Amino acid sequence: MVYPIEDIRYVESAFNQFYDIGVTETGGVTRLGYTKEEDDMHEVFTGLARELGFDIHTDEVGNTFVANSADDEDYYLIGSHLDSVVDGGRYDGVAGVLAGIMVMRWAKQDGIAITMRTVAFRCEESSNFGLCTIGSELITSGEFAPDLSMLSGKDGVTLGEIFKERGYSLKPKRIEGVKEYLEVHIE
Predict the structure, then answer these.
(1) Shortest CA distance to 142 belongs to which of 60, 50, 33?
(2) What is the pTM of this model?
(3) 148: pLDDT strictly greater than 90
C-alpha cells in the first residue's frame, strides 16, 4: 500500500509534538499517570483534534475523547493511553491514539459517515500508583475493587487527593454506546 506523502508528514509531525514531553537522558520517556507530563500529552492530543475540527470531551476520570459526531450511541472507539512506564518507549500508547486520529481523519477526508471516537485513557501503566488500567477500568466497571483513593503516587500525593483537586470521580458513570473497540499497540 502506498501512503500519500501528506499522511506520512502528518503522522511524523504529530509524533514530534509528543516526543519531548517527559524525555529522559537515555532517550526514553517518563510520563506518569495523573502528572503534568500526562496532562501535557492530553493537551497535544486535544490540539490535534481541534485542528481537525473534532469534538473533545473529558470524562469523570480525566480520559480524553475525540468525536466526529455528537451521536452517543453505537460508535466505534479506537484508542490507547498517553502515560508511560519509567524510561519507556516514545511510541507506546501514542501509536494507538494516533491510529484513531488517522482513521477519523481519513473518514472525514473521504466523506465516510461512520460515528467514531478516539480515546486517550488516563493512567493505564502501573508506574505511578502500582496499579494499571485505572482510567479504562473506572469507566468500564463504574468502580475499582480496591480503594483507589489511598493509592500514593511516586510524589506521595494520593489518587484521592488528585481526583478531589481536579473534580474527578472514583465512581463515574459507565461508558455506553461503544459498538466495537480497537487498540493498536506497540511495546
Answers:
(1) 60
(2) 0.94
(3) no
